[in-house]
Amino acid sequence: MILHTPRLTLSPCRPEDGRDFIALEHDPDVMRHLTGGRVGAQVPAELAGTYLQPRGGEPHVWTARRNGAASFVGWFCLWPETDQHAELGYRLRRDHWGQGLASEGAAALVGWGFGSAGYQRITGCTMAANHASRRVLEKAGLRHVRTLPAAWAAAIPDGAGGEVHYEITRGDWIAQSA
Description:
Blueprint: E1 3-4, E2 8-12, H1 18-25, H2 32-35, E3 61-66, E4 72-80, E5 85-92, H3 101-115, E6 121-127, H4 131-139, E7 143-148, E8 163-169, H5 170-177
Parallel strand pairs: 5-6
Antiparallel strand pairs: 1-2, 2-3, 3-4, 4-5, 6-8, 7-8
């Protein structure tokens, strides 16, 4: 399933996308709120594997490219937790931050999740200190439901504020879309 937004094309990821995905993980600014900006072997054991690291063959992960230019922007996922619930995630190249592309892609996946995939609930989480990502979740229609202390708080600068969880239900999405 290919999704189109005014500025993006989201396509199911392929092995050829792996190099771009890995490059994202090697940008300390991109990884700041996931690993404290550490990359590769520098990632503490308590953080290793606690976040999605696509390599290009994962189901439910879309590669985002600019319409027309086809330049790599990042990736989005709508990872099924159950047949009724999925978790929204995304990671963009730093040079595409602040342009509304994360919100655009996230909203497209939320719409697809409720409109085509049949989910009843979509959630997302980020660090409390990650205000940009919180705003993306809000613009995609999700609302803050709780803040939890993070077991890894000491491993990440600004981690002491914990992790915030957001969600939207199918009913809320329908009401917002009306």
